[in-house]
Amino acid sequence: MSQSSDQQQHPISLYLKIWGLLFVLSTLSYLVDYYQLEGILRWTLILVFMFLKAGLIIGIFMHVSWEKYSVKLLLFIPPIAVLIFIALMAIEADYTYLNRLTFSK
Amino acid sequence: MANDDKHSKQTSSWQSAVADWSADKETFNMPWGKLMMWIFLLSDTFIFSIFLTSYMKVRMTTTVEWPSSSEVFALTIAGNHIPLVLIAIMTFILITSSGTMAMAVNFAYKGDKSKTFYLMIITAVLGASFVGMQAFEWTKLIVDEGIRPWGNPMGAAQFGSIFFMITGFHGLHVSCGVIYLAIVANKVRKGDYDKKGFHIVEITGLYWHFVDLVWVFIFAFFYLW
Protein backbone atom coordinates (compact mmCIF):
# COMPACT_ATOMS: atom_id res chain seq x y z
CA MET A 1 0.00 0.00 0.00
CA SER A 2 1.47 3.32 -1.01
CA GLN A 3 1.47 5.65 1.97
CA SER A 4 1.92 8.85 0.01
CA SER A 5 -1.21 8.66 -2.15
CA ASP A 6 -3.71 8.26 0.69
CA GLN A 7 -2.32 10.73 3.23
CA GLN A 8 -4.21 13.94 2.87
CA GLN A 9 -1.75 16.77 3.36
CA HIS A 10 -3.01 20.26 2.65
CA PRO A 11 -2.11 23.65 4.12
CA ILE A 12 -4.11 24.72 7.18
CA SER A 13 -4.95 27.98 5.40
CA LEU A 14 -7.06 26.00 2.91
CA TYR A 15 -9.21 24.61 5.73
CA LEU A 16 -9.55 28.06 7.30
CA LYS A 17 -10.73 29.49 3.96
CA ILE A 18 -13.34 26.74 3.53
CA TRP A 19 -14.45 27.26 7.12
CA GLY A 20 -14.93 30.97 6.45
CA LEU A 21 -16.76 30.25 3.20
CA LEU A 22 -19.14 27.83 4.97
CA PHE A 23 -19.81 30.54 7.57
CA VAL A 24 -20.64 33.08 4.86
CA LEU A 25 -22.90 30.63 2.98
CA SER A 26 -24.76 29.71 6.19
CA THR A 27 -25.26 33.38 7.00
CA LEU A 28 -26.62 33.99 3.49
CA SER A 29 -29.09 31.10 3.74
CA TYR A 30 -30.16 32.37 7.16
CA LEU A 31 -30.72 35.83 5.66
CA VAL A 32 -33.02 34.28 3.03
CA ASP A 33 -35.34 33.43 5.90
CA TYR A 34 -34.66 36.61 7.88
CA TYR A 35 -35.79 38.84 5.00
CA GLN A 36 -38.71 36.48 4.31
CA LEU A 37 -37.93 36.09 0.60
CA GLU A 38 -40.72 34.17 -1.12
CA GLY A 39 -41.39 32.13 -4.24
CA ILE A 40 -38.89 30.87 -6.81
CA LEU A 41 -36.14 33.21 -5.54
CA ARG A 42 -36.35 31.69 -2.03
CA TRP A 43 -36.20 28.05 -3.17
CA THR A 44 -33.42 28.74 -5.67
CA LEU A 45 -31.24 30.54 -3.11
CA ILE A 46 -31.82 27.89 -0.43
CA LEU A 47 -30.86 25.09 -2.83
CA VAL A 48 -27.84 26.91 -4.28
CA PHE A 49 -26.40 27.66 -0.82
CA MET A 50 -27.17 24.10 0.30
CA PHE A 51 -25.37 22.48 -2.64
CA LEU A 52 -22.39 24.85 -2.36
CA LYS A 53 -22.01 23.99 1.33
CA ALA A 54 -22.42 20.26 0.70
CA GLY A 55 -19.87 20.43 -2.13
CA LEU A 56 -17.28 22.21 0.01
CA ILE A 57 -17.70 19.73 2.88
CA ILE A 58 -17.52 16.65 0.63
CA GLY A 59 -14.82 17.98 -1.71
CA ILE A 60 -12.39 19.63 0.72
CA PHE A 61 -13.14 18.52 4.30
CA MET A 62 -13.79 14.90 3.30
CA HIS A 63 -10.93 15.06 0.70
CA VAL A 64 -13.06 13.59 -2.12
CA SER A 65 -11.53 16.10 -4.59
CA TRP A 66 -8.22 14.29 -4.22
CA GLU A 67 -9.58 10.75 -4.28
CA LYS A 68 -9.30 8.50 -7.32
CA TYR A 69 -12.04 8.34 -9.94
CA SER A 70 -13.11 4.84 -8.79
CA VAL A 71 -13.83 6.22 -5.31
CA LYS A 72 -15.82 9.13 -6.73
CA LEU A 73 -17.93 6.72 -8.79
CA LEU A 74 -18.51 4.56 -5.71
CA LEU A 75 -19.72 7.61 -3.80
CA PHE A 76 -21.77 9.39 -6.46
CA ILE A 77 -23.57 6.68 -8.46
CA PRO A 78 -25.78 5.41 -5.56
CA PRO A 79 -27.01 8.93 -4.62
CA ILE A 80 -28.06 9.43 -8.27
CA ALA A 81 -30.31 6.38 -7.86
CA VAL A 82 -31.66 8.02 -4.69
CA LEU A 83 -32.43 11.21 -6.65
CA ILE A 84 -34.47 9.18 -9.14
CA PHE A 85 -36.34 7.60 -6.22
CA ILE A 86 -37.06 11.08 -4.78
CA ALA A 87 -38.42 12.23 -8.14
CA LEU A 88 -40.71 9.19 -8.30
CA MET A 89 -41.97 9.85 -4.77
CA ALA A 90 -42.63 13.51 -5.62
CA ILE A 91 -44.80 12.44 -8.57
CA GLU A 92 -46.58 9.93 -6.31
CA ALA A 93 -47.13 12.64 -3.66
CA ASP A 94 -48.76 14.96 -6.19
CA TYR A 95 -51.11 12.15 -7.15
CA THR A 96 -52.01 11.42 -3.50
CA TYR A 97 -52.59 15.11 -2.82
CA LEU A 98 -54.97 15.49 -5.77
CA ASN A 99 -56.87 12.37 -4.66
CA ARG A 100 -57.23 13.76 -1.14
CA LEU A 101 -58.55 17.05 -2.50
CA THR A 102 -61.03 15.18 -4.67
CA PHE A 103 -62.26 12.45 -2.35
CA SER A 104 -61.77 13.50 1.30
CA LYS A 105 -64.03 15.84 3.15
CA MET B 1 -7.44 23.23 -27.38
CA ALA B 2 -9.24 23.62 -24.03
CA ASN B 3 -11.80 21.10 -25.23
CA ASP B 4 -9.09 18.65 -26.17
CA ASP B 5 -7.49 18.97 -22.74
CA LYS B 6 -10.79 18.39 -21.03
CA HIS B 7 -11.53 15.41 -23.19
CA SER B 8 -8.18 13.78 -22.61
CA LYS B 9 -8.52 14.32 -18.85
CA GLN B 10 -11.95 12.68 -18.83
CA THR B 11 -10.68 9.74 -20.80
CA SER B 12 -7.85 9.20 -18.38
CA SER B 13 -10.27 9.38 -15.41
CA TRP B 14 -12.40 6.64 -16.92
CA GLN B 15 -9.32 4.69 -17.89
CA SER B 16 -8.07 4.89 -14.30
CA ALA B 17 -11.44 3.59 -13.06
CA VAL B 18 -11.38 0.74 -15.58
CA ALA B 19 -7.81 -0.11 -14.59
CA ASP B 20 -8.74 -0.08 -10.89
CA TRP B 21 -11.63 -2.48 -11.43
CA SER B 22 -10.07 -4.82 -13.98
CA ALA B 23 -6.42 -5.10 -12.98
CA ASP B 24 -5.19 -7.79 -10.63
CA LYS B 25 -5.01 -5.59 -7.50
CA GLU B 26 -7.15 -4.03 -4.78
CA THR B 27 -9.72 -1.78 -6.45
CA PHE B 28 -9.68 0.98 -3.85
CA ASN B 29 -6.24 2.23 -2.95
CA MET B 30 -6.93 3.19 0.66
CA PRO B 31 -6.72 1.67 4.16
CA TRP B 32 -9.56 -0.84 4.62
CA GLY B 33 -10.91 1.06 7.64
CA LYS B 34 -11.35 4.17 5.51
CA LEU B 35 -13.17 2.23 2.78
CA MET B 36 -15.42 0.61 5.41
CA MET B 37 -16.22 4.07 6.80
CA TRP B 38 -17.14 5.30 3.30
CA ILE B 39 -19.43 2.29 2.79
CA PHE B 40 -21.02 2.88 6.20
CA LEU B 41 -21.57 6.56 5.35
CA LEU B 42 -23.11 5.56 2.02
CA SER B 43 -25.58 3.32 3.86
CA ASP B 44 -26.27 6.17 6.29
CA THR B 45 -26.91 8.42 3.29
CA PHE B 46 -29.64 5.99 2.24
CA ILE B 47 -31.29 6.10 5.68
CA PHE B 48 -31.25 9.92 5.87
CA SER B 49 -32.47 10.11 2.25
CA ILE B 50 -35.39 7.84 3.09
CA PHE B 51 -36.26 10.00 6.12
CA LEU B 52 -36.10 13.21 4.10
CA THR B 53 -38.08 11.62 1.25
CA SER B 54 -40.83 10.52 3.63
CA TYR B 55 -40.82 14.07 5.02
CA MET B 56 -41.25 15.41 1.46
CA LYS B 57 -44.07 12.97 0.89
CA VAL B 58 -46.11 13.80 4.03
CA ARG B 59 -45.58 17.52 3.52
CA MET B 60 -46.67 17.39 -0.12
CA THR B 61 -49.70 15.17 0.50
CA THR B 62 -51.24 16.82 3.55
CA THR B 63 -54.25 19.04 2.86
CA VAL B 64 -53.75 20.76 6.24
CA GLU B 65 -51.45 23.80 6.42
CA TRP B 66 -47.81 23.03 7.35
CA PRO B 67 -46.57 24.99 10.41
CA SER B 68 -44.20 27.88 9.59
CA SER B 69 -40.79 26.63 10.78
CA SER B 70 -39.49 30.19 10.87
CA GLU B 71 -42.10 30.96 13.57
CA VAL B 72 -42.03 27.60 15.39
CA PHE B 73 -38.29 27.86 16.00
CA ALA B 74 -38.22 31.57 16.83
CA LEU B 75 -36.89 32.68 20.20
CA THR B 76 -37.60 35.85 22.13
CA ILE B 77 -34.28 37.18 23.43
CA ALA B 78 -34.27 40.33 25.58
CA GLY B 79 -37.67 41.31 24.21
CA ASN B 80 -36.68 40.82 20.55
CA HIS B 81 -38.48 38.18 18.53
CA ILE B 82 -35.81 36.52 16.34
CA PRO B 83 -36.77 33.72 13.92
CA LEU B 84 -34.58 30.59 13.75
CA VAL B 85 -31.87 32.09 15.98
CA LEU B 86 -31.08 28.88 17.89
CA ILE B 87 -30.86 26.89 14.64
CA ALA B 88 -28.46 29.48 13.22
CA ILE B 89 -26.19 29.17 16.28
CA MET B 90 -26.35 25.36 16.09
CA THR B 91 -25.40 25.51 12.40
CA PHE B 92 -22.39 27.74 13.08
CA ILE B 93 -21.24 25.49 15.93
CA LEU B 94 -21.38 22.38 13.75
CA ILE B 95 -19.49 24.11 10.92
CA THR B 96 -16.85 25.28 13.37
CA SER B 97 -16.47 21.75 14.73
CA SER B 98 -15.98 20.52 11.15
CA GLY B 99 -13.19 23.11 10.73
CA THR B 100 -11.39 22.02 13.90
CA MET B 101 -11.76 18.36 12.86
CA ALA B 102 -10.22 19.03 9.43
CA MET B 103 -7.25 20.69 11.16
CA ALA B 104 -6.94 17.75 13.56
CA VAL B 105 -6.56 15.39 10.57
CA ASN B 106 -3.87 17.64 9.16
CA PHE B 107 -1.88 17.71 12.41
CA ALA B 108 -2.33 13.95 12.82
CA TYR B 109 -0.59 13.29 9.48
CA LYS B 110 2.16 15.71 10.52
CA GLY B 111 2.61 13.58 13.64
CA ASP B 112 1.72 16.39 16.07
CA LYS B 113 -0.13 14.29 18.64
CA SER B 114 -0.84 16.96 21.22
CA LYS B 115 -2.36 19.42 18.70
CA THR B 116 -4.42 16.55 17.21
CA PHE B 117 -5.65 15.60 20.69
CA TYR B 118 -6.69 19.13 21.63
CA LEU B 119 -8.38 19.85 18.28
CA MET B 120 -10.34 16.60 18.51
CA ILE B 121 -11.41 17.39 22.06
CA ILE B 122 -12.53 20.89 20.96
CA THR B 123 -14.52 19.22 18.17
CA ALA B 124 -16.14 16.84 20.67
CA VAL B 125 -16.99 19.68 23.07
CA LEU B 126 -18.60 21.68 20.24
CA GLY B 127 -20.58 18.56 19.27
CA ALA B 128 -21.71 18.08 22.86
CA SER B 129 -22.86 21.71 23.03
CA PHE B 130 -24.84 21.11 19.81
CA VAL B 131 -26.64 18.18 21.46
CA GLY B 132 -27.23 20.33 24.56
CA MET B 133 -28.89 23.03 22.46
CA GLN B 134 -30.97 20.39 20.72
CA ALA B 135 -32.15 19.15 24.13
CA PHE B 136 -33.12 22.75 24.97
CA GLU B 137 -34.94 23.09 21.64
CA TRP B 138 -36.88 19.83 22.14
CA THR B 139 -37.80 20.78 25.72
CA LYS B 140 -39.14 24.15 24.57
CA LEU B 141 -41.16 22.59 21.73
CA ILE B 142 -42.62 19.80 23.90
CA VAL B 143 -43.30 21.80 27.07
CA ASP B 144 -44.10 25.30 25.78
CA GLU B 145 -45.46 24.74 22.29
CA GLY B 146 -47.23 21.41 22.86
CA ILE B 147 -45.70 19.64 19.84
CA ARG B 148 -46.16 15.84 19.96
CA PRO B 149 -45.33 13.08 17.46
CA TRP B 150 -49.09 12.73 16.86
CA GLY B 151 -50.05 16.40 16.60
CA ASN B 152 -49.42 20.04 17.37
CA PRO B 153 -51.45 23.24 17.76
CA MET B 154 -49.95 24.95 14.65
CA GLY B 155 -51.14 22.75 11.81
CA ALA B 156 -50.39 19.44 10.11
CA ALA B 157 -50.11 16.57 12.61
CA GLN B 158 -47.20 15.01 10.67
CA PHE B 159 -44.94 17.94 11.58
CA GLY B 160 -44.14 16.54 15.04
CA SER B 161 -43.41 12.96 14.04
CA ILE B 162 -41.13 14.00 11.18
CA PHE B 163 -39.37 16.63 13.29
CA PHE B 164 -38.60 14.29 16.20
CA MET B 165 -37.58 11.44 13.89
CA ILE B 166 -35.17 13.41 11.69
CA THR B 167 -33.57 15.71 14.26
CA GLY B 168 -33.56 12.86 16.80
CA PHE B 169 -31.71 10.54 14.45
CA HIS B 170 -29.24 13.30 13.60
CA GLY B 171 -28.79 14.11 17.30
CA LEU B 172 -28.06 10.42 17.94
CA HIS B 173 -25.35 10.58 15.27
CA VAL B 174 -23.81 13.66 16.88
CA SER B 175 -23.89 12.02 20.32
CA CYS B 176 -22.21 8.85 19.00
CA GLY B 177 -19.70 11.06 17.18
CA VAL B 178 -18.78 12.86 20.41
CA ILE B 179 -18.07 9.53 22.13
CA TYR B 180 -16.15 8.24 19.07
CA LEU B 181 -14.05 11.42 18.94
CA ALA B 182 -13.29 11.28 22.66
CA ILE B 183 -12.16 7.64 22.47
CA VAL B 184 -9.95 8.18 19.40
CA ALA B 185 -8.51 11.44 20.78
CA ASN B 186 -7.56 9.68 24.01
CA LYS B 187 -5.90 6.82 22.11
CA VAL B 188 -3.95 9.34 20.01
CA ARG B 189 -2.74 11.00 23.21
CA LYS B 190 -1.69 7.67 24.71
CA GLY B 191 0.31 6.84 21.56
CA ASP B 192 -1.73 3.80 20.45
CA TYR B 193 -1.37 4.78 16.80
CA ASP B 194 2.33 5.64 16.79
CA LYS B 195 3.16 2.43 14.94
CA LYS B 196 -0.08 1.92 12.98
CA GLY B 197 -0.20 5.43 11.53
CA PHE B 198 -2.83 8.11 11.97
CA HIS B 199 -5.37 7.12 9.32
CA ILE B 200 -7.89 6.57 12.12
CA VAL B 201 -8.05 10.35 12.68
CA GLU B 202 -9.02 10.90 9.04
CA ILE B 203 -11.61 8.09 9.30
CA THR B 204 -13.11 9.65 12.43
CA GLY B 205 -13.08 12.98 10.58
CA LEU B 206 -15.05 11.48 7.68
CA TYR B 207 -17.79 10.46 10.11
CA TRP B 208 -17.82 13.88 11.75
CA HIS B 209 -17.94 15.82 8.44
CA PHE B 210 -20.79 13.55 7.34
CA VAL B 211 -22.80 14.55 10.42
CA ASP B 212 -22.21 18.19 9.48
CA LEU B 213 -23.16 17.40 5.87
CA VAL B 214 -26.49 15.86 6.91
CA TRP B 215 -27.23 18.96 8.99
CA VAL B 216 -26.75 21.11 5.86
CA PHE B 217 -29.62 19.21 4.23
CA ILE B 218 -31.83 19.20 7.35
CA PHE B 219 -31.21 22.95 7.81
CA ALA B 220 -32.25 23.66 4.21
CA PHE B 221 -35.21 21.31 3.88
CA PHE B 222 -36.67 21.32 7.37
CA TYR B 223 -35.90 24.73 8.84
CA LEU B 224 -35.73 27.00 5.80
CA TRP B 225 -38.07 25.34 3.29
From TrEMBL, chain A:
<keyword id="KW-0812">Transmembrane</keyword>
<dbReference type="InterPro" id="IPR005171">
    <property type="entry name" value="Cyt_c_oxidase_su4_prok"/>
</dbReference>
<feature type="transmembrane region" description="Helical">
    <location>
        <begin position="73"/>
        <end position="91"/>
    </location>
</feature>
<protein>
    <submittedName>
        <fullName>Cytochrome C oxidase subunit IV family protein</fullName>
    </submittedName>
</protein>
<feature type="transmembrane region" description="Helical">
    <location>
        <begin position="12"/>
        <end position="31"/>
    </location>
</feature>
<keyword id="KW-0472">Membrane</keyword>
<dbReference type="Pfam" id="PF03626">
    <property type="entry name" value="COX4_pro"/>
</dbReference>
<keyword id="KW-1003">Cell membrane</keyword>
<keyword id="KW-1133">Transmembrane helix</keyword>
<feature type="transmembrane region" description="Helical">
    <location>
        <begin position="43"/>
        <end position="61"/>
    </location>
</feature>
From TrEMBL, chain B:
<protein>
    <submittedName>
        <fullName>Heme-copper oxidase subunit III family protein</fullName>
    </submittedName>
</protein>
<feature type="domain" description="Heme-copper oxidase subunit III family profile">
    <location>
        <begin position="34"/>
        <end position="225"/>
    </location>
</feature>
<keyword id="KW-0812">Transmembrane</keyword>
<dbReference type="InterPro" id="IPR024791">
    <property type="entry name" value="Cyt_c/ubiquinol_Oxase_su3"/>
</dbReference>
<dbReference type="Pfam" id="PF00510">
    <property type="entry name" value="COX3"/>
</dbReference>
<dbReference type="InterPro" id="IPR013833">
    <property type="entry name" value="Cyt_c_oxidase_su3_a-hlx"/>
</dbReference>
<keyword id="KW-1133">Transmembrane helix</keyword>
<dbReference type="InterPro" id="IPR035973">
    <property type="entry name" value="Cyt_c_oxidase_su3-like_sf"/>
</dbReference>
<feature type="transmembrane region" description="Helical">
    <location>
        <begin position="72"/>
        <end position="95"/>
    </location>
</feature>
<feature type="transmembrane region" description="Helical">
    <location>
        <begin position="116"/>
        <end position="136"/>
    </location>
</feature>
<keyword id="KW-0472">Membrane</keyword>
<feature type="transmembrane region" description="Helical">
    <location>
        <begin position="206"/>
        <end position="224"/>
    </location>
</feature>
<feature type="transmembrane region" description="Helical">
    <location>
        <begin position="35"/>
        <end position="52"/>
    </location>
</feature>
<feature type="transmembrane region" description="Helical">
    <location>
        <begin position="156"/>
        <end position="185"/>
    </location>
</feature>
<comment type="similarity">
    <text>Belongs to the cytochrome c oxidase subunit 3 family.</text>
</comment>
<keyword id="KW-1003">Cell membrane</keyword>
<dbReference type="InterPro" id="IPR000298">
    <property type="entry name" value="Cyt_c_oxidase-like_su3"/>
</dbReference>
